[in-house]
Write a structure and sequence with these properties.
The protein is α+β, with helices and mostly antiparallel strands. The chain has helices at residues 8-32, 41-45, 51-68, 72-78, 84-96, and strands spanning 36-38, 100-111, 115-126, 130-143, 146-153. A five-stranded mixed sheet has the order 1-2-3-4-5.
Length: 154
């Protein structure tokens, strides 16, 4: 959009309004596009990821996606030992929100032979406005088909 110099300030304001309006119209589609997993700069500085770390990050993506899409079946695949109490709590949480965007910032992944510990910060945007941010520690088990979550702690 080209503007004449005498109308520069007015055109900058119009550009801002058009940009903001576009963002509002596109935000439902951007939120639905899936979870974002933020990889900290430290990861790049420490060298390439191991195949286990890549698999753990894939699990974290499925974990975030299960929450965002209120997908109990997917949640069960990432945490197969889900208790009845946890399932009830999860269903209540899913029913209490219209939308939820989950952003995970991985702080550390420590892989042992058959287990792993993931420390992360989770930031949830609930119903497009309320933001909750909190740390989580996930204890993982290596199964024959890949990694699963055994325990979720704050």
């Amino acid at each position: 959009m080209a503007c004449a110099t005498e109308f520069g300030r007015r055109c900058d304001g119009i550009r801002l309004v058009v940009w903001a309006f576009s963002l509002v119209l596109l935000s439902p589609f951007l939120a639905w596009a899936g979870p974002s997993i933020h990889l900290p700069d430290v990861t790049a500085a420490t060298g390439p990821e191991t195949p286990d770390e890549v698999a753990v990050r894939r699990l974290l993506g499925d974990y975030a996606r299960a929450i965002e899409h209120k997908d109990l079946a997917l949640f069960r695949t990432v945490k197969p030992n889900l208790t009845k109490e946890e399932e009830t709590r999860l269903q209540k949480a899913f029913a209490s929100v219209q939308s939820q965007v989950v952003k995970i910032t991985v702080q550390s992944i420590q892989v042992q032979v058959r287990q792993a510990t993931v420390r992360l910060m989770r930031r949830d945007t609930i119903d497009s406005s309320m933001i909750a941010s909190f740390p989580q520690t996930l204890l993982l088990d290596r199964e024959k088909d890949g990694w699963t979550i055994r325990e979720i702690n704050r």
